[in-house]
Design brief:
The structure is a homotetramer.
Chain A (H helix, E strand, L loop, with lengths): L10 H18 L6 H8 L3 H7 L3 H13 L11 H16 L2 H12 L4 H28 L9 H18 L6 H15 L6
Helix pairs in contact in A: 1-2, 1-4, 4-6, 4-7, 5-8, 5-9, 7-8, 8-9
Chain A binds a DNA duplex through helix 2 and helix 3.
Chain lengths: 195, 195, 195, 195
DNA sequence: CCCTAATCGAGACGGTACGTCGGGTCTTCGT
DNA sequence: ACGAAGACCCGACGTACCGTCTCGATTAGGG
């Protein structure tokens, strides 16, 4: 996505572009965000944007990564249930922030932009899921999650309800509800004593 | 959404518009779908579209409802687990159809179009969820689902994982995986014998 | 032009249309005058306008005639020079009025609307010129104008300079200048003593 | 009018636009001339037209100037009467040409478009009148025209009758009539021996 | 340490679509 | 039966952006 040719690019311009995109998106909303507008606000030629990014979504993704890239490491207190509750509450909190709206817009755009989909997957979703996968594998090793459970499935079971509510009903679940969700889901993921 | 003023509108033109939108969306994709194009294909003035629909998404939604509006009734064999498996497999199958792509595009658009979001909610999602809610309440009465479980939460637990996979990873879960999902989720929703 | 079929037409509606056109033209200018607007302002269906008038210019022409139709009779004091000066000063004064702007707009429109040209000719210009022709013929009989002079040419010689200034330079000549004009023109129209 | 900002404009595109306007105006007439049509015919984006011209009339004016800009120099044989007859016959001949129709349309448009009026004045009428003024001043110096006669008035006296006939009666005077006109007008403009 | 080439800003260009306006026709409904 | 109301198809408006393309001007690096 962003730098396709790392050679000779003006880091200064890139910063300005990314920041302009972030600001404009907050001011006018993703729908009215335009490359023309970003260029003007950043004091940059349109070509400079087209040179390094394929779409407005890609610019915004860079802006998101700049701030979300280094997420807090997955909590590890030894109690998987508690850890997931903690992490998910933090995640949902982030969804409600200004950047959360950018993330939501990107998740929307991705439904009809394959290139952006790939980039979002690679640069944001995959890393996020990797961290979660690690925590799940750890929990499996500690016997807190059934060993035969696909980690990817576990993630879908845990995070799916949250995204469902957020993307389909435009609401973010409150903490208590997250706890209930995780408790319920974990019941099904826990090793069955009777087998 | 669609008819804002039901008075004196040409049913013939409306049909043509909706069908043209559906066809064009399949031919060129949602991103390249335009009101201009729909009007041309339908042999209709642009004003006629703007008169009755606020956006291309709204037209497409009407097209979707025309075909999905009367969904198959929720299965009721007495076995809630089996019924949900059945229904969800059907739903995921629909996601993979051509209309499924329209639905996906709408779910994307909805992330930055509040008006469309409201319409999609009201005319498609709410009815779908109502049917699921009914089935869940029935299951609760039959003792197959814990009585203290919020039906909306149950829906999110069941369908969330599917949408997560579909919207975030652009994949539809295969039937076996759906079964595993439902089994796992129901474990957490089943009445606890120990309480 | 105006009533093509005098049968069964609502005199009330016609009045309203003509007046609405006149008012709107003064408020927004001829360029922005529209049949749609006239109909709305007059509280009349568009069809009612199309039924009786072929264009917005035709409506405005009716409005003009209503007020200018019965122009003051051509002055006749026995002194042709003085009479023409009097009449032309009145005419130029009228050009500067609000209705004068309507007349000017019509003279403009007429340059690319043959139907309107014919109507304007028939209903406004011809009558005006007829009155002037009569006065000229009288003057000829009284020996104040050369007998071999085409009356139409005389009119062009007298009024041409005024219209030139008004239509090409957007100015109306002041009274003193009109006097100079007429004096000069009459010098060439006076019977030549030496012939 | 035409170039508002002379910087970096594509001369090629400008030529194409002007020529397309001229051709279209001859083919469909001024009333049906549209910027949309000009752009299409010229193979040019609409914006390129709007960038450099404020209206279709302005484009057409440029087209007119391109061909009429360098008018034949005012004849000067020493005989002012003869010279004006020559020049006016040529002018009236031009009125009857295809471009003459464009000129007539512009004179019409100018009656309700102030911006175009200013441009027409500045770029076509003023230069034409300047040439005539020069010839008149020369004639005054040679004693063929009264010295106290305003040159602008002289022009109105001479050309007014022609424009009157052309714009109000949609006819162009034939040569013989022009001669009679000029003779008559000059009689009033000649120095009076008796004063 | 200059020369050459890449990159930059700026913004014009050919396009597509927007959302609006009005033209002229046709249909519906109320008086 | 007429006329107001207004929906209809259509064409054009003027605007906004798209993505591409020149333009100098600057700037960095390899000769």
């Amino acid at each position: 996505m962003s730098p396709r040719r790392p050679e000779r690019r003006s880091e200064e311009a890139a910063k300005a572009v990314i920041q302009a995109a972030r600001e404009l998106c907050q001011e006018v909303g993703y729908a009215k965000l335009s490359i023309e507008g970003i260029a003007a606000r950043a004091g940059v030629g349109k070509n400079t944007i087209y040179r390094w990014w394929p779409s407005k979504g890609a610019v915004l993704l860079d802006g998101l990564l700049e701030l979300w890239g280094e997420a807090a490491p997955f909590p590890d207190t030894g109690d998987a249930v508690a850890d997931f509750k903690t992490q998910m509450k933090a995640a949902v909190g982030a969804f409600s922030s200004e950047l959360g709206q950018h993330y939501r817009a990107l998740l929307g755009e991705v439904q009809h932009d394959g290139v952006l989909a790939e980039a979002l997957q690679e640069r944001l979703l995959r890393p996020m899921m990797a961290r979660a996968t690690d925590r799940i594998e750890l929990a499996k090793r500690q016997g807190q999650i059934r060993g035969d459970l696909d980690a990817e499935l576990a993630i879908e079971l845990l995070y799916g309800p949250i995204y469902h509510r957020w993307l389909l009903s435009q609401r973010a679940p409150e903490p208590a509800r997250i706890e209930a969700m995780v408790d319920s889901v974990f019941t099904g993921m826990t090793p069955r004593p009777d087998l």
